Automatic annotation (TrEMBL):
Protein name, as recorded: CbbY protein
Organism: Paramagnetospirillum magneticum (strain ATCC 700264 / AMB-1)
Domain of life: Bacteria
Transmembrane segments: none
GO molecular function: hydrolase activity
Classification via Pfam families: HAD_2 (PF13419)
Gene3D superfamilies (alphabetical): HAD superfamily/HAD-like, Putative phosphatase, domain 2
């Protein structure tokens, strides 16, 4: 069974780590510092997460915002988020570290397919960045999830067919992006994606704690 999978492809926000509350806090701090009376509560942010990309969410919330304002807010948000990660306020979800170690020991390639910014991804990964064969981020694609572009790019860089890879995701946008090009997906819903329609996924798990690599690959079917 193990030889049927040659690579694991991870989403980042909500999948590798429960990052979205940190992002929401950072957005609100950036808004406040800019003198804006915008506040994204959990309900508002849950709706905005249907839009992929931080700049895109700002525009979805405030369509008339200038490009300069959007870029400035997003840049400041990322600075605040980076400090939160560096101070240990964001950690990997249960079972993720163990799964990465097992995959490396078995000789599987590891990849990231996200439409988060490269700076945020590299901040979260830290030294673990070296474990990944390729990391595809927002800067690498024109269209964000649910468009499959980022997954197509990762497959090209891995030089592997879709049936030799398994994707770890947390959102319906991610599942749609991956399954559109034939990738199988195991979902671990996050705080903001619980209750979404994951019927296209191969399996849905609470998290990865206690899940061996062999079991995960078995779920791929």
């Amino acid at each position: 069974m193990m030889n049927q999978v040659a690579a694991l492809i991870f989403d980042v926000d909500g999948t590798l780590a429960e990052t979205e509350e940190a992002h929401r806090y950072a957005f609100n701090r950036a808004f406040s510092e800019a003198g804006l009376n915008w506040t994204w509560n959990q309900e508002t942010y849950r709706k905005l997460l249907k839009v992929s990309g931080g700049k895109e969410r700002i525009l979805a919330f405030a369509p008339d915002a200038s490009p300069e304002l959007v870029a400035g807010l997003h840049n400041r948000k990322n600075q605040i988020y980076t400090k939160m990660v560096d101070s240990g306020q964001v950690s990997f979800r249960p079972g993720v570290e163990s799964l990465i170690s097992s995959a490396r020991a078995q000789g599987l390639k590891l990849a990231v397919a996200t439409t988060a910014t490269r700076a945020n991804v590299e901040t979260l990964l830290g030294a673990r960045k070296a474990f990944f064969h390729t990391i595809a981020c927002a800067e690498d694609v024109r269209r964000k999830k649910p468009d499959p572009e980022v997954y197509a790019l990762v497959l090209k860089r891995l030089d592997l067919p879709a049936d030799k890879c398994l994707v770890l995701e947390d959102s319906v946008n991610g599942v749609t992006a991956a399954t559109t090009i034939g990738l199988k997906v195991v979902v671990t819903p996050s705080l903001y994606t619980k209750g979404q329609d994951f019927s296209a996924a191969a399996a849905v798990l609470k998290d990865l704690s206690g899940i061996t690599l062999a079991k995960l690959i078995e779920l791929k079917g």
